[in-house]
Amino acid sequence: MVTYIILGLAALCVVLLVLSMLFTPVQRSIGFANVTRHKWNSALVVAGSMVGTTLIAGSLVMVDTSERALQDAAFAHLGEIDITVRALKEVTFQIDPLTPEMVATISLDALNEATEGQVDGVMTAVERDLPVVKVETEPNSPLGFRPVLAEPEVTVLGLDFASLKDFGSSESPLAALAPPVSGQAYVSLSLADELELAAGDDIAVYYQNEPSIYRVAQVLEDDGISGRRIDQDDSTGTVLLSLSDAQSLMELESDQVNAVLISNVGGVIEGNDATDSVEEATRDLLEDAWPDTVWALRHDKQNALSEGGGPSTGDIFLMVSSFAILAGVMLIINIYAMLAEERRTEMGIMRAVAFSRQQLVMTFAYEGFVYSAVASVIGAIIGAALGALIVTGLSEIIAQDQSSSLEGLPLTIKPSTLLVSGAAGLLISFITVFITSVRISRLNIVMAIRDLSEPEGSGPGKWQLFVLPVVFVLAALLTAFGFSSANGYFQYIGPCIMLISGAAVAGRFLSPRLALTLGGAAIIAYSFLADRLEEVKIMIDEGPGLFFISGIFMLLAGMMIIAFNLSVVLWIVRLGSSGLKRLEPIVQIAIAYPAINRMRTAFTMGMFGLVLFGVTLLTMYGGLLDGFITANLEKAAGGFDVVVYNTSSNRIVDLESEIQASDEVDATQIASIMPVHRALVKFPDFERPAPDDPDETDEEQSEDDKYVEDSIHGIVADFAAQQKYTLEVRMDQFATDVDAWNAVVADPSLALVSARYDGTNENADNAELNPGDTVRLLNPATGDIVEKTVAGRLETIEVGFNVLWGVIVGADAFQQEFSESSSRGDAPRLFVMNVNDDVNLADFGKDIEKALISTGAPVRVVREVLTDELEEVSTFLRIFQGFLAFGLIVGV
Length: 892
Fold this sequence. Notes:
Elements (H helix, E strand, L loop, with lengths): L1 H22 L1 H13 L1 H39 L5 E6 L6 E2 L3 H6 L2 H8 L3 E19 L7 E15 L24 E5 H7 L6 E6 L2 E11 L17 E5 H7 L9 E6 L2 H4 L4 H15 L4 E5 L1 H6 L7 H30 L1 H10 L3 H44 L14 H26 L4 H5 L12 H23 L3 H20 L4 H18 L4 H9 L2 H19 L2 H11 L6 H14 L1 H40 L4 E4 L9 H6 L9 E18 L6 H5 L8 E9 L1 H6 L4 E4 L6 H10 L3 E4 L20 E5 L6 E10 L12 E4 H7 L12 E6 L5 H11 L7 E3 H30 L1
Parallel strand pairs: 4-8, 5-7, 13-18, 15-17
Antiparallel strand pairs: 1-2, 1-9, 1-10, 3-4, 3-6, 3-9, 5-8, 6-7, 11-19, 11-20, 12-13, 12-19, 14-17, 15-18, 16-17
């Protein structure tokens, strides 16, 4: 919609100007002649005018590239699959088999009846992410083979190939293939590249710690189902089996599956639009027929195409570049003001001889149109090149990110992008030029011919008397609406606009210096105090948008103060330089000239100030982020070096035995291994907030469904002794934090709670649990309730990585009271490890991964994970800085 508006306005502008030129040949000739007569001036104007176009084009190239990357991923790894349906166990959320009766509930006919024909395919499947190992025959090995290369998380998919013909709007290339015979598999090209596979090679797929051997029959392109990935970030390829082989591998009956794949009408991309309505209808059918089953409906394509629901990379670039675009507008105003200063005598003569004010405006407008048109073309081309450089930089970041499923970003420059950015740049520069032309055409003919300064206005102009009060009233209404609707943006923006317009009105009747200085000071003061308003504080915490806006308003306020107080600066300089006879006149003249041309000085300072503000802000943010991560690194690590997560398909009960059985790791490097158990727990005394969706609020819920849910962890004595987590508060009877941790392990009546229960978390019913409080905990698997005394509350950990949260108890208490709710049964959910001081953690982490490859256990070297995240963000910020620096360079 916005695209059509921009193109429409630009086209209207061009048509009106061309028609106007046809009827005013004299003004047209003079305007065009000025372009060729002042070549260097023309070059400067074009350079300044193209800033907006260039930055818009660069940002839109990022939008196109991001969109293309997401669509490519959807085509490669999802294809026609829009929704995946699974049944889960009620407490542990493990995948449950689907019976034929369950599948029949959401048949193609049933879904089309419920959705009015929005579904064009329903297909059953058996799938899991499992470890896959390339193997070679080894007669002397106990298993008869030796591993060559391995991937810990590969999507293994079994399906009825005959059903592919009726799945989706377009027939899958797989439909033309015969299903792999028993003992054979098709593998995706991405997996073949990782494991160096070719037809005829053997692979071992591990499930429940047992390998099943398959021979690669064919390598297929990653194209929809043949490149299917359950986890878009962590899965590294696809293995396709016959349905019977997959059922046998994953221990399912011949009539059981564990997933139903649904395709919406409309193809790979367009079909995504129906996801919400189809999902709602599917869930209603399943929950009505099978109310006791937990249904999980995944819509990975919708999530992928919307970049997780957040702003796209291109949108972020466009928001940040708004500083430089606004600076470019100020630059254009300044350039035209200076051109007008140079031509004042010429303009005065033209007005005296024959030209009306309107004709003078049109002469400047025609000249400005030429500059704007040339600048929009050049700016669009340079913007495309700038976007290509940014894509290259981001591709390097993505290539270094091992968790990303993308190898890079596909540079995409659409002709429509160049057209829209050129049109937007044309509008920005031409409208700025036109308004400036109207302003500078209001000259005193006699003063202009004599090249004398314009006299000060004796009172407000008619348009100012009308427009400024209207702006003030509209800003007041915006402010009132902001406070009545609890909108933080309007609560801040409204008063700031009121102060600017109010000061401008007052300055027409009172001293402009006094009015605008007080107005600017009030804006700065309000900007510093506004975060005391709850809604404004929330907006600032949620994202950088309001923070950027407040920076712009404070910068404008500073411009107002300095522009009308340069004489004060001059007076101070005179006092300071009074003893420097040679420098005194130079310094005074240097300041006197800007003091005379207040508006030009204000715009110049604003132009550089806006871009420098953006660059400085990003630099400061990068520095703060660096310090923030460094300060929280040890907090998040908790005193541990490596974390190994247990999987549901290949559980590790004794990690130490697994490592000792492998030749990949030197066990003497390990100082300690500690298991951590985890299960679901509910708080019967605290209720979750009501859903935002009114339909969900009306649905009947069992009593325990309303309770606050969290995780409960069981730890051993070694964990308590070696951990370095800080307790915010603890019971007075414990002299140190370690004493409290040790007591929790030894005494089953004690527990620690996370910072979530400090009384400020709405999702936890604002529950406040302090040392000495009694808390009731519900085991959702058995319905039993136990009471614990809170021994302490953990300090908040601000970074995203964390090993423990919720409730912490001793391992013995956990096994007795909550093991039934664990998704890993008696096996730990994870293991934490400490290694000797002389061990290289990065290399050690890789060795552990190799040793545990057949289990698919994710291994995280804690400090390395956080450091890598910091480096990626820092690189991203440097690219932003370079993007903004372009505007600064052109401004100079």
